[in-house]
Write a structure and sequence with these properties.
The protein is an alpha+beta fold and 197 residues long. It has a domain of 105 residues: Nucleotide Exchange Factor Grpe, Chain A, domain 2. Helix content is 64%, strand content 15%. The strands form two sheets. Strands 1-4-5 form a three-stranded antiparallel β-sheet. β4 and β5 form a beta hairpin. α2 packs antiparallel against α3. It is rod-shaped and about 170 Å long. The model has no long low-confidence stretch (mean pLDDT 83).
Length: 197
């Protein structure tokens, strides 16, 4: 009977050890499952965080591109306004020059009148005023357009007549009826000319 008790005690010990071992395995399995769930949750959190990070990066790139476009537009605006200011300064006298050109024409007509002893002093005075006006216009960048003997150019000449002249080249200006003028590099009045056929 003592053997039987010992066997029973051994069996109970074995059962307890098996039960403890089973509980340990169950705990290990539970820990593994918990760990897997945590990893999956971590991966889900990582995926969510990565998606949010990608979204923020995309928004940053969009804002950066927008800033670059705005900066380029502003630079273009500054350049355009600078060019407009330079053009305004360069051609600021255009309106007054256009008003003075008929005065120049009248002076030139007055100087074509035959000078007599009686009108000699008057003609000299008109010549001096004409030269002074011409010099003042030249100081502001006004130049005469050379026409006679030059090939006809519709950008600087206004043809009002055609005539056949065998001594002149075809399509050349043979007579200037009214002077044309440049203001710096811009034609402010084309020359009125007669052109050879």
């Amino acid at each position: 009977m003592a053997d039987h008790k010992e066997e029973k005690a051994v069996e109970q010990d074995v059962e307890q050890e098996q039960q403890q071992e089973a509980e340990t395995q169950d705990e290990a399995v539970t820990e593994v499952i918990d760990a897997d769930e945590q990893v999956e949750a971590g991966e889900t959190d990582r995926d969510t965080l990565q998606a949010e990070l990608d979204k923020v990066k995309q928004e940053k790139d969009d804002v950066y591109q927008r800033v670059l476009r705005i900066q380029a537009e502003f630079d273009n605006y500054k350049k355009r306004t600078q060019k407009e200011k330079e053009a305004d300064r360069k051609y600021k006298s255009e309106d007054i020059v256009k008003e003075l050109l008929p005065v120049m024409d009248n002076f030139e007509r007055a100087l074509q009148v035959e000078v007599t002893d009686e009108t000699k002093n008057f003609a000299e005075g008109i010549t001096m005023v004409y030269r002074q006006l011409k010099d003042a216009l030249a100081n502001h960048g006004v130049e005469e357009i050379e026409s006679v003997g030059k090939p006809f150019d519709p950008t600087i000449h206004h043809a009002v007549m055609q005539e056949e002249d065998e001594e002149a080249e075809p399509e050349t200006v043979i007579e200037e009826l009214q002077k044309g003028y440049y203001l710096k590099d811009r034609v402010i009045r084309p020359a009125m000319v007669k052109v050879n056929k």
